[in-house]
Amino acid sequence: MSGLTFTPSPGARPLSRMVRIHAAMETRLLLRNGEQVLLALVIPLLLLIGGARSGDVIDLGSGRRIDVLTPGILALAVMSTAFTSLAISTAFERRYGVLKRLGSSPLPRVGLLLGKVLSLITVIAVQLALVAVVGLGLGWRPTGGVVAGAAAALLVVLGAAAFASLGLLMAGSLRAEATLAAANLVYVVLLVAGAVLLPVSSYPDPMQPVVTLLPSGALAQGLREVASGAGLSLVHALVLAVWAALAAALTARTFRWE
Amino acid sequence: MTAAAVEVEDLVMRYGAKTAVDGLSLTVEAGSVTAILGPNGAGKTTTIETCEGYRTPQSGRVRVLGLDPVSQHRRLAPRVGVMLQAGGAWSAVRAVEMLDYVAALHQNPLPVAALAERLGLGSCGRTPYRRLSGGQQQRLGLALALVGRPDLVFLDEPTAGLDPQARRTTWSLVEDLRRDGVTVVLTTHYMDEAERLASYVYVVDHGRVLTSGTPQELTSARAQNIISFQAPAGLDTVRLTASLPPDCTVTERPPGNYQVDGLVTPQTLAAVTAWCAQVDVMPEHLSVAKPTLEDVFLDLTGRELRS
Ligand SMILES: Nc1ncnc2c1ncn2[C@@H]1O[C@H](COP(=O)(O)OP(=O)(O)OP(=O)(O)O)[C@@H](O)[C@H]1O
Ligand SMILES: [Mg+2]
């Protein structure tokens, strides 16, 4: 027999430690899930390489193709992880009672949220690095130096916050199957109609303001402008911040844990 | 003096128009094993989940280890182990990985390998949660409740769906918890389980406590002995009762199963067999026995427990 004794000795680890443990767990589970890896890495890289090699089949407007394409794919990578992946995984965590079970663990809700954020940051950093390296290899020439880099980082943070809040809004209110369908649908719709692949200028004139107000449009177009040396547009940053604030406020009010 | 580990006073919980818990009160002494016994839909899970801080009492008061389970949840959570009635893990997570994860959230967790071994999870440690059998998922749920070395554990139907051997493993674990000073609150449908494990039992139905006491108190508060036998259905129990000593009653439930309650003496037994001889029926499986918790339960609820 094992000499296991159960004499009570309860206690929680410090919050920062629990957050790291949780982030590591979520990241591991994401990497184990083939569909999520497909969404996070394979599709963006295929679109980047395919788009760059497709000659003039798809009209990307004026400017060098790869310079239009790469920032859009960076935005796509952020959207796939912060929105689609997060929405689906959280919806199933709710459905399978994981959120409920963690509710009685020492990890508080704020720790769970911070763990998710840390996992998102990790995954997005890897995605962006890979997309950027492949883009550079295909001839992408971003300009603007460190200032542009900082502006791009700000846009990515705002964009990830907006997409993550929207993803959690969906995961906390719809059933898991509905979230699975809707999150994929939104991903495809924004990919095609949300200025991810094509620059805003390729859309019909009346559509352009609408596309610019979408989180995907604001992030992709903002990144394009920053990378081309045009500087940070406050409009794009503001659009993303408003999406993030609205969705976060709604999520806080509507999220159902069970 | 032993302080109460859990105090529930006049708890009322409703889901819409449906009242799930209807003025329930109970006290769990520190270091005890307390069983909440009741049929499906009695309100056991709702009560226990309110103690775990998942729901705010709509009326009444709940204290766990002296704290409010909702407003003081963060202080309470590390000290309380929870086994949910179902679910609670990622579908792709491996059994031991899940255990490692929850262990890592605690300051002084139990040794994970030894705990997994003890619960018979050693052979399926690398199996993803969704491929574990129902019983393995159940045992993992129990391990997750224990791994943080809590002061108090809530186990919601810890042996539902387990094979007889796994049930025994769980029972011996609960006995060890009591030995080591962990307070245990468990719900169950199984009489033998409550009788064997619990130091105190609450019988609930329709969201209310029907009776409570130690298993001995509950069984001895009732008639000392019961005579039971099987015979063709529809015997005239009124005539049989009339032929017995004054304070004995005969009931037929379910059909073909007869039970004689009251002051059962050797004379009572003789009278029963004499009456059977007179109407020419053979009382099969005739027995004289102490009432079990199951008899008490059937008396109180009029219902079979297992469903
Ligand atoms: N989320 C819910 N929404 C609506 N009604 C509910 C909900 N949860 C429980 N109920 C109802 O409340 C009553 C008590 O349910 P509860 O789960 O507490 O019973 P229980 O004693 O745990 O039953 P079981 O032995 O089947 O687990 C039942 O009638 C049930 O249908
Ligand atoms: Mg229940």
Concise description?
The complex is a heterodimer of chains A (258) and B (307). Chain A has 258 residues and is mainly alpha-helical.
Global structural class of chain A:
mainly alpha
How many distinct domains of chain A? 1
Report the CATH architecture of the largest domain in chain B: 3-Layer(aba) Sandwich
Biggest chain contact? A-B, 31 and 43 residues
Q: Determine the N-to-C terminus distance of chain A.
A: 39 Å
- What composes the largest sheet of chain B? 6 strands, mixed
Helix share bin of chain B: 25-40%
Q: Please, what is the average pLDDT of chain A?
A: 93
Structural class of chain B: alpha/beta
Strand content of chain B: 25-35%
Please state how the strands of the largest beta sheet of chain B are arranged side by side.
5-6-7-3-8-9
Query: For the CA atoms, what is the radius of gyration of chain A?
Result: 20 Å
Q: Which word captures the global form of chain B? A: elongated
Tell me the number of helical segments of chain A per DSSP (H or I, 4 or more residues long). Answer: 10
Domain tally of chain B: 2
Average of per-residue pLDDT values of chain B: 91
Main sheet of chain A, how many strands, which sense, barrel? none
- State the helicity of chain A in percent bands: over 70%
Number of strands of chain B: 13
* Structural Rg of chain B: 23 Å
The unreliable regions of chain A are none
Could you walk me through the main structural features you see in this protein, from its secondary elements to its overall organization?
The complex is a heterodimer of chains A (258) and B (307). With 258 residues, chain A is mainly α. Chain A has one domain. Chain A contains 10 helices and no strands. Chain A has helices at residues 15-32, 34-53, 65-95, 98-103, 109-137, 145-173, 176-193, 208-213, 215-227, 234-254. In chain A, helix 2 (34-53) runs antiparallel to helix 3. The two termini of chain A are 39 Å apart. The mean pLDDT of chain A is 93. With 307 residues, chain B is of the alpha/beta class. Chain B folds into 2 domains: 4-219, 3-Layer(aba) Sandwich (Rossmann fold); 223-290, 2-Layer Sandwich (Alpha-Beta Plaits). In chain B, 33% of the residues lie in helices and 27% in strands. Chain B has helices spanning 44-51, 73-76, 95-104, 112-118, 134-146, 164-179, 191-197, 215-220, 237-242, 266-279, 293-301, and strands at residues 4-15, 18-29, 33-37, 59-64, 80-83, 152-156, 183-188, 200-205, 208-213, 226-230, 249-252, 257-261, 284-289. Chain B has a 6-stranded mixed β-sheet, with helices on both faces. In chain B, helix 6 (164-179) links the parallel strand 6 (152-156) and strand 7 (183-188). In chain B, helix 3 packs parallel to helix 5 (134-146). Chain B is elongated. Chain B starts with a strand and ends in a 6-residue tail after the last helix. The chains are: A mainly alpha (258), B alpha/beta (307). The interface between A and B is large, with 31 and 43 residues. The structure holds adenosine-5'-triphosphate and magnesium ion.
